[in-house]
Amino acid sequence: MSRYLLLLSFGFATFGLVLGIYMGISQNHAQLVAHAHLLLVGFLMSFVYALCHRLWLGDLITRLAKIQMVLHVLSALVLTAGLFMLYGQIFPGHVIGPVLGIASIGVFLAFLMMFWLLLKHPQARQ
Ligand code: HEM
Questions:
Q1: How far apart are the CA of 103 and the centre of ligand 1, in A?
Q2: 123/101: higher pLDDT
Q3: Dihedral sign from CA coordinates of 40, 43, 45, 51
Q4: Residue 123 has pLDDT above 90, yes or no
Q5: Which of 32, 62, 84, 90 has the most other CB atoms within 10 Å of its CB?
Q6: Separation of alpha carbons 106 and 78, rounded Å
Q7: Is the dihedral of CA 94, 96, 100, 102 positive or negative?
Q8: CA dihedral in degrees (94, 95, 96, 102; nearest 10)?
Q9: Hey, CA dihedral for 92, 98, 101, 107, is it positive or negative?
Q10: How far is CA 24 from CA 19, 20, 53, in A?
Q11: Is the predicted pLDDT of residue 124 greater than 70, yes or no?
Q12: Atom of ligand 1 lying closest to residue 40 CA
């Protein structure tokens, strides 16, 4: 589980860093919100979840752990793609807003699931 999350986190970082370099070169910072969320929600949160699995959860593979990973990754993908479309003016706010809202709730629910896994797992309590 930690390996999937680690690789996914580096995938998010690749897109986030490329977008940052593009913004720097083009002097067009319109996508700074998508860049920041790709790196913070996509890269850093996935990386932290990979560390949680590796260090405290013993890479446990339960149904909840799988749901947590899939929910976090899908929500982060939808959130960052939605922000990219909003700030790239591909869709107006009233169209993309509800999608961003649902994706944000997905990110938060996945966070709560990881919190629960850490609270419940014996190794994480030591
Ligand atoms: C290749 C490396 C990077 C480049 C070229 C880059 C480039 C940029 C640029 C051009 C901006 C817009 C600044 C502005 O308009 O105020 C920005 C903002 C931001 N970047 Fe990066 N960035 C890089 C790496 C990172 C990393 C590693 C993180 C976090 C893990 C990060 C997080 C942020 C955040 C949070 C903002 C928003 C700051 C604000 O609201 O003023 N960036 N970045």
A1: 22
A2: 101
A3: negative
A4: no
A5: 84
A6: 10
A7: positive
A8: 90
A9: negative
A10: 9, 6, 35
A11: no
A12: 30
Q: How many CA atoms lie within 13 A of 54 on its CB side?
A: 11
The single-letter DSSP state of residue 121 is: -
**Sole residue written with tokens 């940052």:** 20
- Please tell me the distance between residue 36's alpha carbon and the centre of ligand 1 in angstroms: 6
Give the pair of three-digit tokens for residue 67: 């749901």
Locate 14 and state its tokens. 């690749």
Q: Does ligand 1 lie within 6 Å of residue 39's CB atom?
A: yes
**Polymer length of the chain:** 126
Q: What is the DSSP string of 109-120?
A: HHHHHHHHHHHH
Q: Is the CB of 74 under 6 A from ligand 1?
A: no
> What pLDDT was estimated at residue 19?
98
